[in-house]
Amino acid sequence: MNRRANRLLAALGAVLLVLPAVADNYLLSIVTLFLFFAYAGQAWNIMMGFAGQLSLGHSLYLGVGGYAAGALYFHFGIGPWAGLWLAIMICALSGAAIGALAFRYGVSGVYFTLLTIAFAEFTRVGFDHFAWVGGSGGMFLKVAERDQIDLLNLRGTPAMFYYVILGLAAAAFALSGWLLRSRAGYYWQAIRENEDAAQALGINTFHWKILAITISSAMTAIAGVFSAFYYGNLFPEQIFNMSRSIEIMLGPIIGGIGTLFGPILGAALLTLVAESTTEVVAALGWETPGIKQLIYGIVLFVVIVLLPHGVWPALARKLKVTK
Predict the structure, then answer these.
(1) Which of 17, 37, 68, 215 is in the most buried spot, having the most CB atoms within 10 Å?
(2) Separate counts of helices (H) and strands (E) for the chain
(3) What is the domain partition of the chain in residue ranges?
(4) How far is CA 151 from the centre of its chain?
(5) Residue in 108, 72, 110 with CA at minimum distance from that of residue 89
(6) How far apart are CA 14 and CA 18, in angstroms?
């Protein structure tokens, strides 16, 4: 990145680092939500933005990751940092298996997207009837005192959760930047732009697409573990729902698919829109179901029409920074 981009990144990092010292718990919860979607958006962006493989079923990895670590903690008292590795392993293998099934038999484009939805949906149905993890009634993790920090069990204050997700978001940004400029990143971009041409040049497209979905699903599993311990409960209808996949992908789409700052900016804009909508609806007394989804749709429509490549590429040109 050029100097302007580095200064912008340093300023953002400095603000986020000192925020808990001046913000109340409500503001921290909002920024925590923004950082969560920024992290999850980076994970999805590796698969779609870098490699061009559209998934609408990333809630699968979010849910499986959360349930894997949550069940170990609920039943056996095994902490989330140990459960995290199980979640990563299961989701990485699941992603690789789905990718192998699809890519080996030439399932691509919209059919691959439908396949990802199908796997997420029948997993949701399966967990709805999985009594060991609570079934449709949900699984509730043990609650600890919120004023005491227990980092080993991810139990503590809002500031603790804030710094955990800030670290994850920073790590995802750094990893995405490194991947984008690595050999894998260049191969992924070649596959995204023209897979047939990439294959003709000798690129093993099957191998590199499997790598993209494996990394993306493993990173999303980590988001699932954080979500499970942050909220303290898991419901199949919520965490496996396709709406969660859409929430994850909207940030990169609005911010700018295939860019580093796009998922961050998109997550910030969507969180701001969501919270503003909540405040306005509450103030006006409107109790209309689906109002947030309607506004999300309007925002997405406006961005697609006015900024088809996302907000960040246009803003980057104005600021004269690297996209």
Answers:
(1) 37
(2) 14, 2
(3) 3-319
(4) 22
(5) 72
(6) 6
Angle (deg, nearest 10), helices 242-255 and 59-76: 130
End-to-end C-alpha distance for the chain, whole angstroms:
8
Distance, CA of 25 to CA of 279 (rounded, Å): 17
Burial (Cβ within 10 Å: 0-12, 13-18, ≥19) of residue 55:
buried
Residue 41 phi, psi (nearest 5): -65, -40
Kindly report the number of other CB atoms within 10 A of residue 249's CB atom.
Answer: 25
Q: Report d(CA 243, CA 117) in Å as an integer.
A: 11
The predicted-structure confidence for 196-212, as pLDDT tens digits, reads as follows 999 999 999 999 999 99
C-alpha 56/C-alpha 209 separation (Å) is 16
Token pair, residue 161, equals 């959760």
pLDDT at 98: 97
Tokens 């698969």 found at: 47
> Which amino acid appears at position 76 of this protein?
F
Query: Does the global pTM surpass 0.90?
Result: yes
Task: Name every residue whose Cβ is closer than 8 Å to that of residue 6 and which is 6 or more positions away in sequence.
Answer: none
